[in-house]
């Protein structure tokens, strides 16, 4: 039997309402030399009958005897894959018709890249375009404090598949983030600068229903990366970087701790050269400006922290701090204008 160009693994659990659209979006790809391995993770709804309703010979249906979870099901699917390229698809999303063709072409033109994702457009509960960094150096840096890949857009070379696959036991629901970091530590990774997938947002998603568990695994990934760069860590270092990763403003953000950590990261990288220094400085400066301008509510603390750290200063930061300081004054003056 001739091996296909691409093996797509789609894992599904109780998604009878959405899985047909996901399957159809793969079977209708402009790149037709593919196999679609659908791993049913012991669904208890009508999912099996929906899948078995497809007659396309490229679809291979396997069903887990017991529920293995997403990571275990992906590992089972990739163990069965025969393609030169391995792709991920989620059971509730929709791949645009040219997705696989665009990504395989990209990988063939960039042999140094082991794995690529793409931009996505959300639909359902909220509509937005999510554009991730595209260049390998920028992505290697971004992985230090974010996950700049949308998992159902990822396509990788077969030889980029790491022994052991996705490690749920170690990283829980952050198994995919941990895997992208592991690949990026060995080879270049990239994102195709185009929207190639429609990402459905709904209340039943893992990121919605099991967020705390996913964040626990994320802390482990952040800890590993910080330890590789800084050496000895304190627990506050991990919690501080976790705050940056989550990026949700609170009434009392750890602004000083973030500034201290960013300066240590910058100095450590100057010693060990783990990341591209230009890309790292750009990320630290941009993120610091965002923290001070959008998270720090105290004007005095915002200015003190900005002036204390000249290595993290930027013109956008200065302008943002000035705007935040003048905004309440402008509001008060406007209210005092005579009628």
UniProtKB/TrEMBL annotation:
It comes from the Bacteria. It comes from Chloracidobacterium validum. Residues 7-129 form the Glycosyltransferase 2-like domain. InterPro entries: Glyco_trans_2-like, Glycosyltransf_2, Nucleotide-diphossugar_trans. This is Glycosyltransferase family 2 protein. SUPFAM superfamilies: Nucleotide-diphospho-sugar transferases (SSF53448). Pfam families: Glycos_transf_2.
